[in-house]
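Notebook B, p. 112. Complex prediction, attempt 2.
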Amino acid sequence: MKIAVCVKQVLSREATIRVNDQGTWVRDADAQFEINEPDQYALEEALRLKEQHGGEVIAVSAGPARVTQVLREALARGADRAIHVGDDALVEGDAFVVAAALAEAIRPEGVDLILTGLQSDDQGFGQVGVVMAERLGMPHATIIMDVSLADGQVRVKRELEGGWFQWVTLPLPTLLTIQSGINQLRYATLKGIMAAKKKEIRAVRAEGRASEQRIARLYVPEKSKQTRVLEGSAAEIAKELVQALREARVI
Amino acid sequence: MILVIAEHGRGEVNRATWEVVAAAQQTGEPVKVVVVGHDCRGVASELATASVDEVLLVEDAALATYTADGYTAAIAAVVQAEAATLVLVAHTYQARDFVPKLAARLDRPLVADCVGLRRQDNAWRFVRPMFQAKLAADVLVDGPAPHFVSLQLGSFRADQVQRGASAVPVRPVAVSIDSAAIRQRPEEPFKEAKQAVDLTQADCIVSIGRGIKGPEHVVLAQQLADALSAELAASRPICDAGWLPMDRQIGSSGQTVAPKLYLALGISGAIQHVVGMKGSRMIVAINKDPEAPIFELADYAIAADLFDVVPAIIAELNSQS
């Protein structure tokens, strides 16, 4: 079982987010980064599948030189080797640009399974995995909460809305986008961190596709609501609120 | 022309599809709606009550159950034949499953999870949240039409759909779907939790957060919900603690709702919760902490102890009904 797992480097959840002077991207020159959270679950799922079925886990990340940090982290957690698709433009590239870069890096590997997180915490496209699958001619399933492999097929549990789920069977090779919470994450051990230093991170060039989506302006959303503050005794507040609800015909 | 891709299940139009129809109508462009499935003429007829140009109906036995491969093949053919400039769809889990594939099939961009769109200087501008909604971006798209756009649930109001004086035509569109080329083999959808509830269809929701303090107080929120004929829901910590079942969770890991009334009791307003309810038409927040971020979204802010105010509201509702 040869598994590629795509991990994106994103700004740390704790990072203060500030728009750059041009108003087109965030200031990230001296920011803290981490592996996109859903991608961490995808990595963990890949490692578990390898433990059950044998094989190899290849971590793949697209972006500038700094993204080797998240590849090193993936190797420390147990990935066997890594591919860095290098191009500074990938940070702000649209979903098709990133998907093309990742897909062409993975294509020659001839993998059985590609796992990605369901979306990223920064751009939040939620489409890179699915676009990769189409590009590689693979079937796919999204927002996956369980993966079981047998007889050259994969049976997955898709999360639907409103508390519904659905089992779907797909032939291999296939691409799955993984939902956060599918498993319990492991963290890198000291032994893993030491071992990672000897593992390969192969650099490949990105396929040169131009973004068709441009951010004209990035900004802090304005508050659009007029808030009315209700004060007084509990009975006064209740009376005023119920009257307002009736006038607005929401009850 | 704007083409709206409808979503339906169990014979009913998804509420989010009406929001997208309203958004399409508000642009002033001609609008068509496409319905894909099998034995779903009823869904098409319901959509034909909206003031649109026409409803396209694509029926095939191979489309009876949703699959990404089947829907992509069927809708790609329609999009090409109809020469739409924009293809609009609600950013549901189903859309997230197949629309990126559809856009990639036609090699045209998809602007996902948008909360607004407008024409400016002869080009469309799409507004979408980024960095977990801490920022918003105005996005421009280059290259030829069609451009695919998915709209975040609750960004537009379903009750603003304009109805026609009479039903618009429903035009069957023949497509050939090779069922052998559909690689996903889906099983019947199921619910894990007993008595699972679909909060997305509720008109009124009473939702509780950490401020409810203990499981013994959930009954108070339930009484308020009963008095409002509302569904009871919660933020993640309440469900993690088991005070309410997981299927009543609102937020990024739970359900996304846009009811007429969302009454938040003791909810601070963390982004993970807010993304699931900010589209609500009216938001009432009751929280002891006047600095709670939930008040940023609230139409009515009540900075008070919910254990004082909620019984008073229940009494007021019951005295008038």
